[in-house]
Amino acid sequence: GENVEQHPSTLSVQEGDSAVIKCTYSDSASNYFPWYKQELGKGPQLIIDIRSNVGEKKDQRIAVTLNKTAKHFSLHITETQPEDSAVYFCAASNTGTGFQKLVFGTGTRLLVSP
Amino acid sequence: NAGVTQTPKFQVLKTGQSMTLQCAQDMNHNSMYWYRQDPGMGLRLIYYSASEGTTDKGEVPNGYNVSRLNKREFSLRLESAAPSQTSVYFCASSEPRAGRFTEAFFGQGTRLTVV
């Protein structure tokens, strides 16, 4: 089955810096890669996703890149702000399957200091 | 506009006690899920219900039972709580589409401590 590894487990940056979180996956059949943000005391919330027919996707200060050959994908946050502080999860699945097949990474705690 | 509501938000149990975690969604979704979240282990699926009247095991079902009470509600029961079940539990729901992946919406979680 699919296995998703995520690094680093914690990341501290200064406000305005960029942050990068990396994930690798094992199943070459996976073609859908979402990222979730979990704020303190809340459930995970989808912030951006990418499908394997594209290499990069941007949404304002957030971008995801995918290297299908190397089986890794990354989340990039530019101009970080204190409200970006949260736990971020990557995940992998196949677009032909149900949500129950989604495999999550272990999470990265991002701390943005003013 | 509540989305997915979980009760209680916090609970402390003694080893061997039983309890039921409640989950309700108001989005008319057919599928519902229970996850547990442990430090360094991400989210792991306990059970899910693809539609009303059906339930299936996920990755870590041992020690848990579930009931899909109706389309809105999906409960998780711990019959005899163990310290290893100390975790944060999340319920989620989604509206599946045949042959297509659809995203789910999560509740705010229940933090359970078993002492």
- Total DSSP helices of chain A: 0
How many beta strands in the DSSP annotation of chain A? 11
Radius of gyration of chain A: 13 Å
The total of helices of chain B stands at: 0
Q: Based on helices, strands and strand pairing, what is the structural class of chain B?
A: mainly beta
**Could you describe the largest sheet of chain B, including whether it forms a barrel?**
7 strands, mixed
Q: Any idea what the shape of chain A is?
A: globular
Order of helices and strands of chain A: EEEEEEEEEEE
The percent range for helix content of chain B is under 10%
Structural descriptors:
heterodimer, A: 114 residues, mainly beta, 6-stranded mixed sheet, 5-stranded antiparallel sheet, B: 115 residues, 7-stranded mixed sheet, 4-stranded antiparallel sheet, globular
Written account of the structure:
The complex is a heterodimer of chains A (114) and B (115). Chain A is mainly beta and 114 residues long. Helix content of chain A is 0%, strand content 54%. Chain A has no helices and eleven strands. In chain A, strand 4 and strand 5 form a beta hairpin. Chain A is globular. Chain B has 115 residues and is mainly β. Chain B contains no helices and eleven strands. In chain B, the strands form two sheets. In chain B, strands 2, 4, 5, 6, 9, 10 and 11 form a seven-stranded mixed β-sheet that branches. Chain B has a four-stranded antiparallel β-sheet with strand order 1-3-8-7, with no helix packed on it. The mean pLDDT of chain B is 94. Chain A binds chain B through residues 4, 6, 9, 32, 34, 41-46, 89, 93-100, 102, 104-107, and chain B through 4, 31, 33, 40-45, 48, 50, 56, 58, 90, 92, 94, 96, 99-104, 106-109.
